[in-house]
Amino acid sequence: MYWVKAWVESFKSSLHLKKIILVLIVLLSILSLTLFIIFVSMKLFNFLATNFIPILCVFGGYIWLYQVFKDRQQKKQQNIVSLQELKQEKETELKQIRAEDDYKLIRQYLYLVLADISDTVQLRMPKIHSELDTPNHYIVKNGVNIYQYIVAKNNTSLTTDEIKDVLTRRIEQRLKEQQFPGINQSYYIHTSGIRYPIFLIDSISDMGAYYQLDIAFCGLKFCDYLEAKAYAKYDTMQNQNSQPRDKEF
Q1: Which of 27, 112, 113, 173 is most buried (CB neighbours < 10 A)?
Q2: Residue 203: inside a domain
Q3: What is the number of structural domains in the chain?
């Protein structure tokens, strides 16, 4: 079996040789890579050393242009925001001016109505328009200006609902006869088909020595609010009527 032994020895020798060759290849690869990195680094260093100022100028110029562009964008955005805020301020100011004009207009109409029926509803007739003013003039409810006025009592025995009915009828009568200066449209027709007076009394509150009247011009939002309030009142009445009652014995 000499030839087998010789073959094994030959195989071991060749395997050992392959390992040596593999190690040499790895070492040569590492050495080559190291030399390549050193070569590239030297070339890069020489390039940077030779072109340092141009590169610095280009890089600095890029940063400067980027900063200029960024600053302009920020200023542009700030200008847009400032314009929007200014526009909102102007719109708010115009709304307040219109609201004050409407407040004085309704006050004038209310004064005329009270002059007609103040004795009937037992309310004290104000001497001048400004006696009807409240401190805040109006509130915003559901996006609608509700204008508030006060009328002093005069030993009235009527309820707020009765006073509201009398005032509402007189307002509608004056609207029908076009007896309010500056009003050409007497009614507002809602999308539901219901016709509302162009301005009406939303509510009357008993404040002790006087009544507070909440009045508004009719429009889509206010009529939506009125209908929602009417439905809520109807539902409340239905629920109250549907509640079981104790049997009487």
Answers
A1: 113
A2: yes
A3: 1
DSSP helix/strand/coil, 14: helix
With beta carbons less than 8 A apart as the criterion, state whether 190 and 196 touch.
Answer: yes
Q: Look-up: residue for tokens 């509302």?
A: 196
Q: For residue 246, give Cα distances in angstroms to 97, 162, 241, 249.
A: 57, 32, 13, 9
Encoded amino acid at 143, one letter: G
Which tens digit of pLDDT belongs to each residue from 19-68? 777 777 888 888 888 888 888 888 777 777 777 677 667 777 778 787 88
Query: In terms of residues, how long is the chain?
Result: 249
DSSP string, 80-123: HHHHHHHHHHHHHHHHHHHHHHHHHHHHHHHHHHHHHHTTTTTB
Q: Look up residue 83 and give its two tokens.
A: 């314009």
Write the burial class of residue 149 (CB in 10 Å: 0-12 exposed, 13-18 middle, 19+ buried). Answer: buried
Residue labelled with tokens 């088909």: 193
User: What's residue 248's pLDDT?
Assistant: 46
Cα 110 → chain centroid: 34
> pLDDT > 90: what percent of the chain?
35
Please, how many CA atoms are within 13 Å of residue 99, restricted to the half-sphere of its CB?
17
249 lies in a domain? Answer: no
Residue 197, Ramachandran bin (φ over 0: left; ψ between -120 and 50: alpha; else beta)? beta
- Measured from the Cβ of residue 190, the count of other Cβ atoms closer than 10 Å reads 17
- The confidence score (pLDDT) of residue 249 equals 39
Q: How far apart are CA 220 and CA 227, in angstroms?
A: 11
Domain that holds residue 107: 96-237
